[in-house]
Design goal:
Blueprint lengths: L3 E6 L3 E10 L4 H12 L5 E12 L1 H13 L6 E4 L3 H10 L6 E3 L5
Helix pairs in contact: 1-2
Length: 106
């Protein structure tokens, strides 16, 4: 499944729409997008995960990378989590480090 990470910018928000599988093969692409977003003046980062079908441990490391790259105080908001992706995030405790909206029932 092809991975894509499409960023959009509004006045204070960066939104990245993720689709496909975030794993070791797609991690470099996502990290490049995060580097671009982190270089801009944004006050929050929204990751739209409605179409993200799979999140591996490498993908989870990418989410940690995103949190580390964003300036202090910039919240990361995950939206539209699929059940399997939500479960991975919950099991690792990463759900306590980000804001989650529109979580699918796991």
């Amino acid at each position: 499944m092809t991975f894509s990470a499409d960023p959009e910018f509004s006045s204070i928000t960066a939104t990245i729409r993720l689709s496909g599988e975030l794993d070791s093969g797609s991690a470099p692409q996502f990290e490049q997008v995060i580097n671009d977003v982190a270089s801009r003046d944004v006050s929050r980062l929204v990751l739209g995960m409605e179409e993200l079908a799979y999140l591996s441990s490498a993908g989870l490391r990418c989410l940690v990378f995103a949190q580390q790259k964003m300036p202090a105080g910039v919240p990361i908001i995950l939206t539209g989590l699929q059940p399997d992706v939500a479960e991975t995030i919950r099991l690792t405790g990463f759900d306590r480090r980000v804001q989650i909206q529109g979580r699918a029932d796991a």
